[in-house]
Amino acid sequence: MKRAALGALLSHWWRHRLQLITLLTGLALATGLWSAVQAINGEAKASYDLATSKMGARQNETLVPKAGFIPLSRYVELRRSGWRLSPVLEGHWPQNTGSLRLIGVDLLSHPTFSNIAKNSTSGSSYSLDALNSQGQLFLNPKTLKQLTVQVDLPPIVQSDQIPIDVVLGDISLVERLLQRPGQITRLIILPEQPLGLHPLEDLAPELQLQSYDAGQISRLTDSFHLNLTAFGLLSFAVGLFIVHGSVGLGIEQRRGLFRTLRAMGVPLHLLTVLLLSELLLIAIVAGSAGLVLGYLIAAALLPDVSATLSGLYGATVEGSLNLRPGWLISGIAMAVVGTLIASTQAITNIYKMPLLAAPGLQARAQAASNQQYGIAVLGLGLIASGTASMLVFDGLIAGFALLAGVMLGTALMLPLLLSWVLTLGLRNARSALGEWIWADMRAQLPGISLALMALLLALATNIGVGTMVSSFRLTFLGWMDQRLSAELYVTAKDEEQAQKFVLWLVGRDVTVLPIRWSEVPFHETKLRIYGVLDDPTYREKWPMLQAQDGAWDRVSNGTAVIINEQLARRRNLWPGDDLNLTSSWKMTVVGVYSDYGNPHEQAIVTLPVLLLHADNVPNLRFGLRLPPSSVQNLIKEVQQEADFEGITLVDQNDLKARSLAVFDRTFVVTGALNLLTLGVAGFAILTSLLTLWNMRLPQLAPIWALGITRRQLAWLELWRSLALAALTAILALPLGLLLAWVLLSIINVEAFGWKLPMYLFPLDWLRLLLLALVAAAIAAAIPARKLALIKPSDLLKVFAHER
Amino acid sequence: MVDWEMTDNTLLQIRNVSKCYAGLGESRAVLRDVSLDLQAGESIALTGESGSGKSTLLHLVGALDYYDSGEIEIDGTSLTNLNDSARSELRRNTVSLVFQQFNLVPSLNVAQNISLHARLANRVDLTWITSLTSRLGLTELGDRYPEQLSGGQQQRVAIGRALAVRPKLLLADEPTGNLDEIASSAVMDLMLKLVRESGAALFLVTHSVQVANQLDRRVHLSAGKIA
Amino acid sequence: MNAKFFLTALFLCLPVTASTQGFAGLGTNAKGFAIPQRGAVLSFPEDHGSHPNFRIEWWYLTANLKGDDGLDYGVQWTLFRSALRPGSEDGWSSPQLWMGHAGLTTPTHQFFAERLARGGIGQAGVTAEPFMAWIDNWEMTGVRPALQHLDLKASGADFAYDLDMSTQGQQLVLHGDNGYSVKSAGGQASYYYSQPHYQITGTLILPNGPVAVTGQGWLDREWSSQPLAEDQSGWDWFSLSFDSGDKLMGFVLRGASADFTSGSWISADGTITALQPGDFQALALKHSDVSRRSIPTEWKITLPTQELSVVIQAVNEQSWMGTSFPYWEGPVTISGSHTGRGYLEMTGYE
């Protein structure tokens, strides 16, 4: 019985292969996008974990100073009291382009250094050499090309056990390279400790316990991954609309079959089980296809994601994608659960289906339209609770809750809103045909509203994310013009060369702006403090968001500091507040400047004050102000000078182009996901229209009989579809703008630490509207073509079958 | 006094069955105290006006619907208090139905449709099905799908499907109601002939006196009561 | 002479190669390090401190103890110094490296711990006057006059000890030729002296609680730059205190072609007799399975010149120091012509 019944059930899909393909594709797309995002997130997390475990401090807690650094003497005192600790000195090591993390450890006490060194892939093996006066530096082969400052470098040992962008060495060597003798950044607490120790908080109250170092990065990147996950879920939701439509249709069309089977003695529970098995089978097939798709998408996007992560957060994600069993299982599970959710309603209907009475489609459509109110009320509730979450929660969660509530809520309200618009149209219709068109559109609404909801979500997301990215880009461009005001940026090989270079510039009509900074420990992280010399360039061009009168005067006379937006927002410091740069260095904030593309906190003081308070302030970089016409000549001259070999010169335009390229790459992923979501929504419309096709013939046949040609009917079909899509697009606009606002003013501030002004891009909206219309037109074209070419006899059948 | 004792040959017993449909405000009685029985292999025609309760009675006998009071027994099994799977079993093995609107499975071809019920009941008798198909004139049409058939052909498929399982009782509800006159009488003749050959009892709902006259017995239903 | 050569190999993080090279390349030349000279006069208290121009050096204390629970215990406290280059320097760049080993042997358990430290920052070191040797919170602190009275502390994850050690003013024992101790037929030598006369009271902290102990201790001091011959692969070293009041230090350096033995006889009245190569004889009687190696834990010791013939038995056969570079070190009991207690160290058993 089971076989025969299942065969009869499945024969439907064989006869309706397009429908099956639609269903499978929709589900595969949904699973694919979701799995892609999951794969990317999983890969990134694995990369962070690997980086952390490579550094060996995974289970170890560390002691960090509440302010400043840990003096060597404190380390020795703690060791002498019995605590087994291992010192680490870490700093940024400026290179010609960017900087590397230079980490100095005590080779004798570091918990995993010997493992790292043992696995070196080139150079001499780990040996006594690392402790010799010359020392050794250990780094990943991939980091080698970034090591551009060639100051009497000790021998290099390559090891792929070391994270990218990190250079490791004995602390004696590193304190020399960083010019920070006697300083320690943190102390790793080794796992095994002797009996009878005094508590650390008594011995060293100025130090605080911190679990491992990766915390900072993971906090920052978490928000990025949350973003991606939200996107993945959105795609999945859009995909589920398709599944809901296809499954619903597949069940709808088989009501007669179910009844016949029941009449022939197939028990209800068996029928339900068989239907569930069928859906499960579909889910597994589509889920597997989705996994393949997801893997491909993830592999294609991963390089851009890692570019984003390293560009925005300095976190390194290695470029290769691994298959993880958890990912496979969760992908299939998503497909199965999604299918079941999408088909709950249909299955429930079957279970409740009376054996006999066969209510017509019309009547059920009527019932569905009555449901519009219920759904709209639910939508309103979602919007309300999303808004309320802003009051209850803080930050990122609240932002996403607001987004989820408002977007889903609005989508649910869409059918009612559209039906109101159509009713309005119906009232104003002048001709009989016009009246029919409006009425028919309204009748069609329940069938197509799910697809329209998907379209609404996709369009709103596109408008919102597009507005965010474009606003960001516009702001970023303006900001670069202000921030990168020097015509030429120079990095010297070493301080000696830097001094020679400055002397050489004397008399060449060039203003030299030193770019010097120091990093000080600050609230469990690091604060980079720049020291600048007073110059009109800063006074005129620096991109201030807020500044007190005479801010630059106060900075240059050494009494005040200006800080970046990230610092201002994270610590809630604004002009007039006091800022403790270190435990013994306090200054008044007189200005806040924008600092896009940088996740870290930053401050600017006048150079003499910085030199007074900080030891390690390398003097290697300069901005040069000179007439733009002489830039190329100067570059040539420098290149010809033998003394200046190894010096790096980057002109402003180059730097801007490079920065913009990084910026654009950052949002490639967002753009790609955006487009895919829209594609899925377009597919949803197609599915819905195909679904409606069979149901619509009985409605169209009488009109045809009344003298409207098939061609006319086909055009009307097309226009109807376009009109619904256009209406949806118009409703999507305010929703998209709201989304943009939330992204710019809430999500961005939480995720990146900056707030951006919102710009409007009407041309983009127009482009998107066209895109939506094209999608709707393509989707409607297939049924319309069918209609135009339908045989009159088929239309006649409608009457013949009518009782 | 009527002897209600079931004889060995009694296949169907309907005793004092009543059925109401809930309407707006008050319920409407469709069947009132109907009693009837049918011997194995016997054929009975149920006639009556539209709305007289003919189809309802047929649905009750087919275990498709539930009566409010009284009792129906088929082949010794009372339908009262029978759960869904027992009712399903009864429909699968004992009773077959032919509907006015054919109710073929559109995604199965003619051959598959004919054998469907037999396969569900796990009682496929290939010789019988082949002969049935050929008697119904459907041998050439085995690969076709229902939408490619005329109404008369579709009903012949439906009859084939119902008889392929060799039911003890065939319930037919206006089987020719959707067919023109010529097709109608041809199909009806064929059906009656095949029913007789298969040995099934027939419970036929019809409005045609002519058809009714060809059956062993006639019962007329009027306003839910046997006249 | 103790595990020092061997451990130094680890200490220097050098690859350990075959015995033809000696341990850890220590058979190679001394690269600018000072070399012990016969006839040099040791000077105290200065020579209690460290000698940064020599490559290796140690302060090595072993103690045979009896607990108030009646059980035999052994304690080891060792501070090794090893120089990457001669000389001292302040800060992380110092070429001096330090390693501490602490061991505590009970009849059934062996506890041990290890500490490493960089010189130049104060985490480990030795000062001569007042005397203090330390690494982390392990300390050997002297009360004037130097080495007459010592306070000894160490702790590991599962044990600790705190011992009070004093002599009755006995002289230091200078081994070999007034402290110039020859280590091979080829003439490799070290400076080597001992204070074998400590009386000890103190407390051991064990997982089951503290145990009060009394007993006797033996301190060895040795420094050199190239103490091993190229073919020497390990050694067995004995420090024995007899109930008669006599003491014996003897060692066997196991060579590829021939063993080299030497030692000192310290009679109860304080006279010291340097043993000639070959005088001291040690014969392994019984091997035990220790840490997947076969290690002799029962020895027959003969010293014909003193009419000595004794059997040495380990208090705990599993006295294994599973430190970065492992070796066997533990208390022993003596029976035969003489009775008493002592310490045994064995290295180079693969």
General description of the model:
- The complex is a heterotrimer of chains A (803), B (227) and C (350).
- Chain A has 803 residues and is an alpha+beta fold.
- Chain A has four domains: 1-54 and 221-358, no CATH class; 56-212, no CATH class; 360-476 and 657-752 and 760-803, no CATH class; 483-656, no CATH class.
- Chain A contains 24 helices and 21 strands.
- In chain A, strands 12, 13, 14, 15, 16, 17, 18, 19, 20 and 21 form a ten-stranded mixed sheet that branches. Chain A has a nine-stranded mixed sheet with strand order 5-7-6-8-4-3-10-1-11.
- Mean pLDDT of chain A is 79; it is low at 121-126, 212-217 and 358-365.
- In chain B, helix 4 (126-135) packs antiparallel against helix 5 (151-164) and helix 5 (151-164) packs parallel to helix 6 (181-198).
- In chain B, strands 6-7-8-3-9-10 form a six-stranded mixed sheet, with helices on both faces. A four-stranded antiparallel sheet of chain B has the order 2-1-4-5, covered by helices on one side.
- Chain B has a single domain (41-66, 83-226), classed as P-loop containing nucleotide triphosphate hydrolases (Rossmann fold).
- Chain B has helices spanning 54-61, 84-93, 110-120, 126-135, 151-164, 181-198, 209-213, and strands at residues 10-22, 27-39, 43-48, 69-74, 77-78, 95-98, 169-173, 201-205, 217-222, 225-226.
- Chain B is built from seven helices and ten strands.
- The longest helix of chain B is centred in the C-terminal third of the chain and has 18 residues, at 181-198.
- Chain B has 227 residues and is α/β, with parallel strands linked by helices.
- The longest helix of chain C has 8 residues, at 4-11.
- In chain C, strands 1, 2, 3, 4, 5, 6, 7, 8, 9, 10, 11, 12 and 13 form a 13-stranded antiparallel sheet that branches.
- Chain C has one domain: AttH-like fold, CATH 2.40.370.
- Chain C is mostly beta strands.
- Chain C starts with a helix and ends with a strand.
- In chain C, strand 12 (189-206) and strand 13 form a beta hairpin.
- Chain C contains one helix and 23 strands.
- Chains in contact: A-B, A-C.
- The interface between A and B is medium-sized, with 28 and 31 residues.
- Chain A: Keywords: Cell membrane, Membrane, Transmembrane, Transmembrane helix.
- Chain A: Residues 230-354, 674-788 form the ABC3 transporter permease C-terminal domain.
